[in-house]
């Protein structure tokens, strides 16, 4: 059997038999435009790191069951080879569950929505699906291992499983599946720094690592008390944090991050910065959390207050952490610092109103009929919107209408007039009946599938029903609207499918951006409420006036010389202009450090 490049003895990590410190940073190829992969890897190396690590999101590669893709932005092998060209080792974290604030924790919606599915367990149908995915993925990773002249030196087993469950047979199955498909490099588990979490996720005979953001000496002591012969590895050092819509922008000061990074290094530990470069949740790939009371959808930006900013700029945190890393004995010679990427000059673009909201959405998808509302999963829809419509007969007078099992947010229209916005699992509104049928429409938005915790895999749409008083409403038509899988032609057709709104309410609008030479920019939509922005037919992501994020990062590679079309689908009210900025606005900030108190 091929000997792994990384080994350990007497608590010391070795590379090819010599003492080694793994200094890694997380950089996700799926959150960075492929045209910028090489640039971001070069910046990571300039930070003083010798390794890059990345998750592999299953749903990004197999959005539709059986259609597995490794091309374009999904070309994992190209990303890994580019890292090798920069002199970086690579750690691959294939899951199958990744969390990562990514939609559904990386699990495909077609899998989690299957009736009776039991996720992240030894449930036979789940293991069979994982094995089929690993049959495609893992041999590709195996071919990139250091033992085969590639840069991959380690592979993670599952991901923070001890925060989820205690099915050790399942974790062993994942380990064995990696080995059976050719993984010979170092295997390790990663869990929180508590006995409970380590008990649930660690495996005898495999390196146990920890994930944390503070108190490194305590984490090191815990791991060494349990695994005395193993090196101390912080598989994720949270030097920043992510954001939810409606909250503040989470930051961590350079001094605080550098202090705890220094604590890890002073313990003789190896480390991976999470994130070294966060990137962007393009399209509809942002996940969500649930705090036990309500959904907490994650914003489009995944800047994460990382040392390398969302657009690649080098931040004060970059220099604070670089000083710590390059001060180590035996650290690599400091690499030249790349200049910050170029930016377009600020400007304003007038918008042209196109199709009104409901008319456009009705024309954009064929209706599906059913006696009761169908879920996103029953409609084979992973993300986006569903327009639910029915025509209940309402006697004269006011009537309470209740929606149950709503996931996540519904705009309610009666005879095409807006009457309510619902964002709770069970919510009600009042309709005045006249003795005739009314046209009831609910535009339901999936705001991101839960990526962490016991509600992982929860369905989307109207999962209960709609009642007038105690009587269920029957006879529904549903129009599934995937949005992020629309082709440029489909997006343009939807924007032209109906007359423009005359009252400033929601709908489609476009703006033209003319550039001589493409470069990055940050897009703001003042006066708009909530919606989605496409650039030349590519869905950039969500925007929402509740913040904290008020600009969307637009990578230069999405633009072309000449005219570029920005298309907006606004759900509430259209603004008059699009504004381009030369710096991001991620909202009012607050200091945040996650701990395991």
From TrEMBL:
Signal peptide coordinates: none
Domain (Beta-galactosidase galactose-binding) ranges: 510-564
Matching SUPFAM superfamilies: (Trans)glycosidases, Galactose-binding domain-like
All residue ranges annotated as the Beta-galactosidase 1-like first all-beta domain in the record: 373-481
Top-level taxonomic group: Bacteria
Molecular function per GO: hydrolase activity
InterPro entries per UniProt: B-gal_1-like, BetaGal1-like_ABD1, BetaGal_gal-bd, Galactose-bd-like_sf, GH, Gly_Hdrlase_35_cat, Glycoside_Hdrlase_35
Domain Glycoside hydrolase 35 catalytic residues, every copy: 13-326
Keyword terms: Glycosidase, Hydrolase
Family from the record: Belongs to the glycosyl hydrolase 35 family.
Name listed for the protein in its UniProt record: Glycoside hydrolase family 35 protein
Organism: Streptomyces violaceorubidus
